[in-house]
Inverse folding.
């Protein structure tokens, strides 16, 4: 019963949303390489690109397109408040395809790591401890109750 309750109320793995470039946002003059090195991007997180619409855009590209500031994608984000979920681990490349934005440094590369999850809970009724643990350190959830009852009984017996 205790394990089922703990599993039911265990918090979900948190995800983060990162505003690309920090306060300046997705704009010329921001060092996106330095900005990206400050964070540990994980699957489940998302990037938020904030910029003035019609001034910049966001295009997900591959490594060679990133290097040459070219793109073949027709999936171009233009809202000025674009949120891109990080669904898979690996390298991700983004550029602005407006005018000379990319050549001026409006390009971002990040590495997304696998999401960190909670340790698996032992199966109910399992007598084998999970790998890397020892049954010697296990404490029955009833031990504190037994001790409390023993102390109460001894107290009641005393004159």
């Amino acid at each position: 019963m205790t394990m089922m309750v703990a599993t039911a109320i265990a918090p979900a793995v948190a995800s983060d949303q990162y505003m690309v470039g920090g306060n300046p946002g997705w704009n010329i003059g921001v060092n996106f390489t330095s900005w990206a090195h400050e964070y540990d991007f994980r699957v489940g997180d998302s990037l938020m690109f904030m910029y003035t619409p019609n001034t910049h855009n966001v295009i997900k590209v591959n490594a060679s397109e990133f290097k040459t500031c070219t793109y073949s994608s027709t999936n171009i984000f233009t809202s000025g408040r674009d949120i891109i979920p990080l669904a898979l681990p690996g390298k991700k490349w983004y550029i602005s395809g407006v005018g000379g934005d990319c050549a001026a440094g409006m390009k971002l590369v990040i590495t997304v790591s696998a999401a960190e999850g909670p340790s698996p809970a032992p199966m109910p009724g399992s007598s084998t401890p999970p790998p890397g643990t020892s049954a010697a350190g296990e404490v029955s959830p009833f031990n504190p109750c037994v001790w409390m009852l023993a102390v109460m009984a001894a107290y009641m017996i005393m004159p």
About this structure: The first helix runs from residue 2 to 9. The chain is about 20% helix and 20% strand.
